[in-house]
């Protein structure tokens, strides 16, 4: 029996530690989106203390208010949301990104009475994603420019090859003409020599 009691106690200890110390936001809000409880993790992620946030509407912390409408729409219709990315306003003014996992609370009439959820800071991942996108765009520009340069070089090379081919054909014709001229001259000399002998 002692072991059976130890597990819930340990679980409670883990949950309290996670709620109070980890950079994760645990929150609950009423059906209108007004915060009722929020964990201390808000301070490390958003710069606000729980006391500053409780009683405020979630939209006050979002960069785009329409995000909240979409989030609530999903919660009201589907009951839960998973990995929903929101762009938040830090107290200092900078933007931070969080992933929301939440579910709607309902009463016996199946009406939504509130929401509970967890938010995890993914700002470093979003920043790396942005940097990666910028790098890809820059790389594509470099590749496009180099491709255009290679195409221009190929056109110039083809032009030079065409000129060289024309020169070779001219040289071959010239050599043939010279050969024909030598043969004609030799023939005339031969005929002249025979005439002198005759």
Structure described in brief:
The chain is of the alpha+beta class and 198 residues long.
The stretches of 5 or more residues where confidence is low (pLDDT under 50) are none
Assigned CATH architecture of the largest domain: 2-Layer Sandwich
Q: How many β-strands, per DSSP? A: 5
Structural class: alpha+beta
The helix content is 55-70%
CATH topology of the largest domain: Beta-Lactamase
Which helices and strands appear, and what pairs or packs with what?
Elements: H1 2-21, E1 24-30, E2 35-38, H2 41-46, H3 50-53, H4 65-78, E3 80-89, E4 95-106, E5 112-121, H5 123-197
Antiparallel strand pairs: 1-2, 1-5, 3-4, 4-5
What does this structure look like?
By secondary structure, the chain is an alpha+beta fold. The protein folds into two domains: about 1-120, 2-Layer Sandwich (Beta-Lactamase); about 140-198. Helices cover about 60% and strands about 20% of the residues. The chain has five helices and five strands; from the N terminus they run αββαααβββα. Strands 2-1-5-4-3 form a five-stranded antiparallel beta sheet, sandwiched between helices. A hairpin with a 5-residue loop joins β4 (about 95-105) and β5. It is rod-shaped, with a radius of gyration of 41 Å. The mean pLDDT is about 80.
């Amino acid at each position: 029996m002692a072991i059976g009691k130890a597990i819930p106690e340990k679980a409670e200890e883990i949950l309290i530690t996670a709620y109070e110390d980890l950079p994760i936001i645990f929150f609950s809000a009423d059906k209108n989106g007004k915060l009722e409880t929020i964990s201390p993790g808000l301070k490390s992620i958003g710069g606000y203390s729980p006391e500053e946030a409780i009683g405020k509407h979630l939209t006050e912390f979002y960069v785009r208010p329409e995000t909240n409408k979409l989030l609530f729409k999903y919660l009201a219709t589907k009951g839960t949301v998973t990995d929903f990315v929101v762009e938040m306003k830090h107290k200092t003014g900078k933007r931070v990104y969080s992933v929301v996992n939440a579910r709607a609370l309902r009463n016996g009439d199946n009406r939504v009475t509130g929401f509970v959820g967890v938010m995890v800071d993914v700002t470093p991942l979003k920043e790396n994603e942005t940097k990666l996108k910028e790098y890809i765009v820059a790389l594509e520009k470099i590749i496009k420019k180099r491709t255009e340069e290679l195409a221009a070089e190929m056109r110039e090379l083809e032009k030079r090859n065409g000129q060289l081919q024309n020169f070779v054909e001219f040289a071959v014709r010239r050599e043939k003409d010279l050969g024909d001229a030598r043969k004609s001259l030799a023939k005339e000399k031969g005929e002249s020599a025979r005439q002198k002998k005759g």
